[in-house]
Design goal:
Elements (H helix, E strand, L loop, with lengths): L1 H14 L8 H9 L6 H27 L16 H18 L4 H18 L9 H25 L9 H17 L8 H7 L4 H5 L1 H25 L3 H27 L6 H33 L3
């Protein structure tokens, strides 16, 4: 009885449902640009992704990684059990079945996302051990691909909507942010990754190199977002985007100064606080952007 209880607790922890908060900005950005906002679709797509699909991916990868050190959302991960594997698969099946009630395109995109996330840690493929491939896959699929998946699900469009410029460009912008931030999520796992033979990009770059790489990517992504807002005559969004991200920049600078003095500061606690601050900043901005953009469209008579 005790072992079953501990297995259930371990499984719930490894699903890391609250961790979906860090992936919410992509959903909100896609929502803010959606022309056919339907409350029912919004609720269903949100639940499918944040309660079932993302936790399924978390649990599946945790099962095969069997981490002993800290991972995203879990400072002290408990030992995984077979129940975690079965639960992650059940969540994936629920996500697939429910997503097809939206339309076939959304369902197919959910399937592809899930399979790619499985390939990330499964021993037969284990994309995680290839630094450039894993970086590109994480950035593209958690950024552009997820943006398109949300956009298709919310609006009931076909998958090829993701090839149109008004969807393609903001989708690429989300990938730019992910490509920059992804190595930072690996910075405290160097020893654990090296022990397993996973040559992550952060491990290749080194601790200071990871900071430098992220800083350059952040500047590029910020400039591209500014261009996007200006192209839509939303100059207010450039200012508000910069203001929203200012706490992230300040925290990043303080953390970097600590790391220059002592590289042990590149640890789980500092990393998770960067994730919390950046996710909160982006979530607040995109909610604000959604509200203000919608008001502008109403004034112009487009909706």
């Amino acid at each position: 009885m005790f072992e079953k209880t501990m297995g259930i607790i371990s499984t719930l922890k490894h699903l890391r449902i609250p961790f979906s908060y860090y992936l919410l900005p992509v959903f909100l950005f896609a929502l803010s640009l959606s022309p056919n906002i339907n409350p029912d679709s919004l609720r269903i797509v949100f639940i499918i992704l944040h309660i079932f699909l993302y936790p399924s991916s978390n649990g599946y990868n945790s099962y095969f990684d069997k981490d002993e050190g800290s991972i995203g959302g879990l400072k002290h991960p408990p030992k995984v059990t077979k129940l975690l594997y079965y639960t992650s698969m059940l969540f994936f099946i629920i996500a697939i079945a429910w997503s097809y009630t939206i339309n076939a395109s959304f369902g197919t995109l959910v399937v592809i996302y899930g399979l790619v996330s499985m390939a990330y840690s499964h021993p037969l493929v284990r994309l995680k051990k290839y630094p450039i491939i894993s970086w590109l896959v994480a950035g593209i699929f958690q950024g552009y691909f997820t943006f398109v998946m949300v956009y298709v699900g919310l609006n009931g469009f076909a998958w090829d909507a993701g090839l149109k410029l008004h969807v393609l460009i903001p989708g690429i912008l989300t990938s730019l942010i992910l490509l920059g931030s992804y190595p930072m999520t690996q910075i405290y796992q160097h020893a654990e990754d090296a022990k397993r033979g996973d040559q992550t990009l952060s491990l290749k770059l080194g601790i200071r190199g990871t900071f430098h790489f992220t800083a350059v990517c952040f500047l590029i992504a910020t400039a591209c977002f500014a261009w996007f807002f200006v192209s839509k005559n939303q100059f207010w969004a450039v200012r508000d985007f910069a203001l929203a991200l200012s706490p992230v920049l300040i925290y990043f600078a303080i953390w970097y100064s600590r790391v220059l003095k002592d590289e042990s500061a590149a640890n789980y606690t500092w990393t998770m606080w960067l994730n919390r601050i950046s996710a909160t900043a982006l979530n607040v901005f995109f909610i604000h952007y959604f509200i203000k953009s919608t008001q502008i469209l109403q004034v112009l008579g487009f909706i």
